[in-house]
Description:
The structure holds two protein chains of two kinds.
Chain A: E1 5-7, E2 10-13, E3 19-24, E4 31-37, E5 44-50, E6 53-56, E7 65-69, E8 75-79, E9 88-95, E10 102-103, E11 107-111
Parallel strand pairs in A: 2-11
Antiparallel strand pairs in A: 1-3, 3-8, 4-5, 4-9, 5-6, 7-8, 9-10, 9-11
Chain B: E1 5-7, E2 10-14, E3 19-24, E4 31-38, E5 42-50, E6 55-58, E7 61-66, E8 71-76, E9 85-92, E10 98-99, E11 103-108
Parallel strand pairs in B: 2-11
Antiparallel strand pairs in B: 1-3, 3-8, 4-5, 4-9, 6-7, 7-8, 9-10, 9-11
Amino acid sequence: xAGVAQSPRYKIIEKRQSVAFWCNPIxxxxxxxxxxxxxxxxPKLLIQFQNNGVVDDSQLPKxxxxxxxxxxxxxxxxxxxxxxxxxxxxxxASSLVTREQFFGPGTRLTVL
Amino acid sequence: SQQGEEDPxxxxxxxxxxxxxxxxxxxxxxNLQWYRQNSGRGLVHxxxxxxxxxxxxxxxxxxxxxxxxxSSSLLITASxxxxxxxxxxxxxxxxxxxxxxxxRLSVIA
Lengths: 112, 109
């Protein structure tokens, strides 16, 4: 079974630039999550999708972050404009109803 | 907040020894999960324990949950060098999964 795919794996940008991350969840997983993990901390949920709909985005900085899930499958997370404090690993995960989440390898973002 | 706090922050043991990590949280939960993260395999789900369960086993892992004390422990028996990783507890209640800051485990061969 293929796991959660993410791209790119690494991205370096200047502050105030924009960036987008892509995630393809495990086939058949209705729930998709985006997390931000700052070095030395645990992952923090940014947004949770159930099929096409947003379940929770209470911790998403909506003035600069946006996310969408096309046709209930792939998802894109965008940051515009980026700030220095956005430097982190962005993790995508998916799950069925069993609550166990399967994580992708993450995208390491460095904002200079 | 619901966020779990792992204790200790870092732990170093010899191969073959047991490792115990603890997690405390503050609000009521539906379940508590443990995850492992290392550079090779990323973040991997280890075990889920529901609020009405007290103990679960999976291979060399044993998890306990005490909802009256709002705490959980993860025991890894007969540790191996490959167990070197960060271990996170994550709680799920009225909000989606909330991760703690993790325990960094080093197993020395």
